[in-house]
Design goal:
Elements lengths: L1 H35 L2 H32 L3 H34 L10 H24 L2 H27 L5 H33 L6
Helix pairs in contact: 1-2, 1-3, 1-4, 2-3, 3-6, 4-5, 4-6, 5-6
Length: 214
């Protein structure tokens, strides 16, 4: 019975790996759309968000099957619950990538990011994609040391977020709408990173049985 449970849990993990790869690709495409004015890429990200939602539904169905057929208790039950947390974080990461793409679409053919803020947004985009890739890698190889790197990446993202807000407060040549867009984009990237860290902590728990600590 326990062997069957872990086989089912491995199947669930496989779905989470695919989901993580998808939200990584979504962030890459959304950032390209934002910074390069790529309308086709932005449209694809928004459309593909439904696929992430469908994967979440599939994962939740698998969890329900595990609970109904295997009736896990104690540690096994906590592993299943941790998987649900991962699913929720990944789905939210997909939503945030779609939000970024939507801003790119709203401002097209103009660029949504003012020139003086482009460098900061580029850094946030780089860190977000790297973090998402590490989440996928952690799920695939279950390397706790990779998961731990995400805390440092999150600090880098937080610093970029503070820098962008500081520049907005100090003022520049951009208008009110551009400032609002920039503040929203910074928040989307920052929250994306937070969900990546949350996912990694759940994976640490899945692997070690101990909660991940910042």
């Amino acid at each position: 019975m326990r062997r069957t449970f872990h086989d089912d849990l491995d199947a669930l993990r496989g779905l989470l790996i695919v989901m993580a790869a998808h939200v990584t690709s979504a962030m890459r495409s959304a950032s390209r759309a934002l910074l390069d004015g790529d309308r086709a890429a932005a449209t694809a990200v928004v459309a593909d968000d439904a696929a992430v939602d469908e994967m979440r539904a599939q994962a939740e169905d698998k969890v329900c099957e595990l609970l109904a057929r295997q009736q896990p208790v104690a540690t096994d039950l906590r592993l299943v619950v941790a998987s649900l947390h991962v699913v929720g974080d990944l789905e939210r990461m997909g939503d945030l990538a779609a939000h970024i793409a939507k801003i790119a679409l709203l401002r097209h053919p103009a660029r949504a990011v003012p020139a003086e803020l482009t460098g900061v947004i580029e850094e946030m985009a780089r860190v977000a994609e790297s973090m998402a890739w590490k989440v996928a890698r952690v799920l695939e190889i279950q390397d706790v040391s990779v998961a731990a790197e995400l805390d440092r990446d999150d600090d880098t993202m937080d610093e970029a977020h503070r820098l962008l807000l500081q520049r907005l407060v100090e003022g520049s040549s951009h208008g009110v709408q551009a400032a609002v867009d920039a503040a929203l984009l910074s928040r989307f990237y920052e929250r994306y990173a937070d969900h990546a860290v949350s996912t990694a902590k759940q994976v640490i728990y899945l692997v070690t049985g101990r909660p991940g600590n910042k």
